[in-house]
Amino acid sequence: MAAEEGLLLNVSSLPAPGFARRRRASQAPRGPGTQQRKALKRKFQWPEEGTQPKQKARLSSPQAKKLATGPLRPIKGLGPPKSPPKKSLTECKVSNASSRTSVKTSSLFRNNPEIPDVQRPSVEQVQERVFTSDSFDQLGLHPHLTSTITSVLGMSCMTSVQKQTIPVLMQGKDALVRSQTGSGKTLAYGIPLIQSLQNMEPKIKRSDGLYAVILVPTRELALQSFQTIQKLLKPFTWIVPGVLMGGEKKKSEKARLRKGINILIATPGRLVDHIKSTQCLHFHQVQWLILDEADRILDQGFEKAVTAILNAVNTNSEKRQNVLLSATLTDGVARLADISLHDPVCISVVEEVGGSSSPKARACLSQADRALPASAERDTFAVPEKLQQNITVVPSKLRLVTLAAFILGKCKFEKCNKMMIFFSSCEQVEFHHTLFQTVLAEGLETGGLEPSLLPPLPLVFQRLHGDMKQEERTTIFQDFLQSKTGVLLCTDVAARGLDLPEVTWIVQYNPPASLAEYVHRIGRTARIGSQGNSLLILAPSEAEYVNLLASHKINVSELKMESILSCLVKDNRFVGNRGGNKKFHSTDPQEVRRRATVLQTQFENFVHSNMETVQQAKKALQSFIRSYATYPASLKHIFHVRLLHLGHVAKSFGLRDAPKNLSTRAVPKKRKNQRQKRPDLLRKNWGHRRLAEVLRSEYSSGLDSGTSQVKRKKGPSNLGNPKPLR
Ligand SMILES: Nc1ncnc2c1ncn2[C@@H]1O[C@H](COP(=O)(O)OP(=O)(O)OP(=O)(O)O)[C@@H](O)[C@H]1O
């Protein structure tokens, strides 16, 4: 309950910014995060602070000059300390040459909490071998299927998970499959599925209806899996695949179902919609039920939909193979395995490493918990060997400029980087997209670099989240899929299963709510044995997260904020009034600070240039705080809304002060009643935790969970507890 109380805290009861400086150590409050609060008391010291004379910085680009003319009055709110702080030596007066208006920006580098020394316990990371030396020839597949795999898909050797899973599924068994991200799980179920369906006598007809149902948690993943199945089916034209993923008119989906689909890839909510309203949809032929990203399907609030689907399928189909797959098998999957798998084989590729246990898939002892790897094994996650994971610790005020500098450093001043940045809400994605697109992407300058060192394409920002129209989502997804560079700002809607080639960097601007999500997010890079990098941005009060990662055998290196910021010295747009021709060393800390301040000023000027952008920033800030309030209780000692310095956080949204009336509630009042009904599969341990997941990922608005819209029909219903299998 203590955690809940924290969520209901009204902003007015929060100490004003600067409280940490004024309070004596002996008065430190008890409760969550006392250590972190202590950390807030210590000032962040930049090397040589105070040695630089006061300077005026003039915005150089016409864009920036235009932005500097925005309203100058700060939004009054909680932010400012009672007595104005002493002028910092790093304060900048940014002048607009035409209007002679000057905007004073508060110091970015003063009054920050100290960045703690991050202790990174070295742990031996769990690793899985990606490839085997075995070819697909030896599986005894239809020759056309083998040649499709080699010639259409261009693959020769099986991956470990394919080598273990395909024979098991070809024997007709159920399976629970865990292997690291990007290890080829789609083909691990896709190949045996097609092998079995093409072999059926009499030959499958389109009009027979469904033979296989594949459930996935997001629309983009549905599309991607559909495309893979389509490729495998090239020689077997009589088998028809189809996808139902929402966002499309139900009428046209119904028409496609009426014409006949043999392999259906669907998101659970949309499928339930059709179970309830599409007469021609029946399951009596269904021989395969595959749940990809099985743990996510539950987490995401689809449990009721999955129950309904299981009931519909169980009632009608007599004999069926069932497969659950994920890179992370969490506790929730135990119950799902219990009700959906029959005498399954457990496949966990991680067992191959070290040779301590048998590389073969093992028979699961029976159902539920016993169908899963042992608890200790579940608590550790395998991440791709060539994935270099980093963290950086950045005070709240400096987050925005640090993220911007990181993007510029990698995507403007280095060649061929493709980056995904994860945020915890749609509003934040929208806000940062507008901001970066305006301030960072426009008016690209060479930064004094040789043309050969410049990226081949201009810096392009795209966005993907659940509040977007499906058409736009699909276009962006396809664009980003095909592009060689670019920056995709997204929510967790893009965290699972998506196979986006050549992504070189994953940035987590907001830390995820669970380690499973951390693993899936970073798993969008370093796929199928390739190289990749990730960066997790933490506040000083969140540095303990590194220990949490270590306790789950996840190893990270630290990148220093100073070194990330130093690339700003290469960018002449942030030179201020010093003139663009002078060469600076990236190691000059004063110059780096000055440039960071100019960049922050440009952000603030853009945000304050009109009411619409101010509102967008406020909305984004509010959604950030709301999602922050929904971290699970087990992480509240690291992520507690009371540890946030709202004035500083507001600055990271380009706001000059924290707005009034910010709510630190996890749920807006209106929505509170909507979460009364408890899901069927996970009655225990659900409530607040699930809500937290849903809020943080903003799936609720974008994905067709369908569960909240499903109205029970009177009379016999399929939505009750699942019936026993077979
Ligand atoms: N045997 C193989 N040889 C070469 N490439 C392969 C092989 N099998 C799969 N791939 C490729 O590896 C990539 C990752 O595959 P896939 O998306 O199925 O991984 P996954 O394990 O499902 O990942 P995630 O856990 O993130 O969903 C795809 O581009 C796929 O085409």
From TrEMBL:
One of its GO terms (molecular function) is hydrolase activity. Residues 667-676 have a biased composition (Basic residues). The Q motif is unique to and characteristic of the DEAD box family of RNA helicases and controls ATP binding and hydrolysis. Residues 134-163 form the DEAD-box RNA helicase Q domain. Residues 52-63, 93-110, 698-709 have a biased composition (Polar residues). It comes from Eublepharis macularius. This is ATP-dependent RNA helicase. It catalyses: ATP + H2O = ADP + phosphate + H(+). Belongs to the DEAD box helicase family. DDX31/DBP7 subfamily.
